[in-house]
Amino acid sequence: MPDPQTPPQAQPTPAKPAAASIHTHASQRVDRGKARRPMLEWCFYAIGLGTLVVLVAGRFIHEAVQNDLRQAAAQQGTYVSIIILTLFGFAVVKNFFDIRFIHRQARLTDKQIDTLRKTNNIYVFLQSSEPSLFRDHIDNLHEIFRRDCNISQDNLVTLLQSRLLAKTRLVEFCSSILVTLGLVGTIIGLIQSAGGLGEVFKAMAAEDGSIMEGVDAALGGMGVAFYTTLMGAILGGVCLRLLSNLVDANTEHIVSHIAELTEIYILPILRRAGRINEEHQQKLREKGIGLPQGVPVPGTVAGNKPVEAPMPASAPDDVEQ
After folding, report:
1. DSSP, res 5
2. Contact of 71 with 227, CB cutoff 8 Å
């Protein structure tokens, strides 16, 4: 049995974390963004769409280019198919650089949240980490915190998402342009076809040997109409639209992941430090010390002398002056 006269051992008091420290642990929230591979997804999409285009419409695209070249040799070319292919290649390259940027920022976010857990200090993290979307977002929150302890990241998240979507919007614009160019090629082809039919009717009326030339012009115009519509629909309406949506989905994912990590691990620390600082400043104001110039002392009106208690009312015969 324990000796009743032996005093119980005092339990050690756990140390309180510093106001600027961050104490996290490995969790699904931290590792959720690591499961996504934007660059790998884009490669799968690009290979799948490229294979589909070659199998379904590869022969027609080749014939469209050959038809444009034949008409160019006859000085009747519109080059619509070649323009569509050139713009499509530019948009795919731009889309590749966009997804590579998102992939790099996602990997930096995963790396820097681990670094933040190891350093256990926001200030050290801001000074030692390389620029990234995640680091810049925390830096902006820290600048807000230096001016106002009531911080919120809603506006910063909206601005971040708008900035990233504006960066990737060019590919979506190219997708719409390709579809429009396909319709323009259709109209041009129908005009050429109508002109060729007019030449056929004139040749039939004159009974000369230029009928086949009109027939060739009419068939060439129909070919331009159908080929350009097909290319604009497949390359712009299908391929670029899917690749653009893939980049947009990964953009929204990284923005939401950064916002989630910040809301869980960063903002509570900054808000707690802000409350501590506000309580300390309030105590200084109550004592009338440590106040910046121009800040009124409690019990005074800004720009005037301290407010004093009113004097008791005097009798009428005391006020002779």
Report:
1. T
2. no
Ranked by mean pLDDT, which of 114-118, 245-249, 278-282 comes out on top?
A: 245-249
For 22, 121, 148, 264, 277, the CA distances from 273, given in Å and listed in that order, are: 11, 13, 11, 15, 6
Tell me how far apart the alpha carbons of residues 2 and 12 are, in angstroms, rounded to a whole number: 21
Find out whether 263 and 153 touch, Cβ atoms under 8 Å: yes
What are the beta bridge partners of residue 300? 306
Residue 301 makes CB contacts below 8 A (sequence gap 6+) with 307
Could you tell me which residues are beta bridge partners of residue 180?
A: none
Tokens of residue 212, six digits? 């086949």
Residue found under tokens 């800004």? 302
User: How does pLDDT run across 98-125, given as a tens digit for each residue?
Assistant: 999 999 999 999 888 888 888 878 888 8
Q: How far apart are CA 118 and CA 133, in angstroms?
A: 19
| Six token digits for residue 221 | 């115009």
In the chain, the amino acid numbered 211 is I
pLDDT band for position 215 (cuts 50, 70, 90)? low
Asked if 53 and 29 touch (Cβ cutoff 8 Å), the reply is no
pLDDT tens, 66-85? Answer: 877 777 666 666 788 888 99
Distance CA 133, CA 157 (A): 11
Burial of 212 (0-12, 13-18, 19+ CB in 10 A): exposed
pLDDT tens, position by position, 47-66? 999 999 999 888 888 888 88
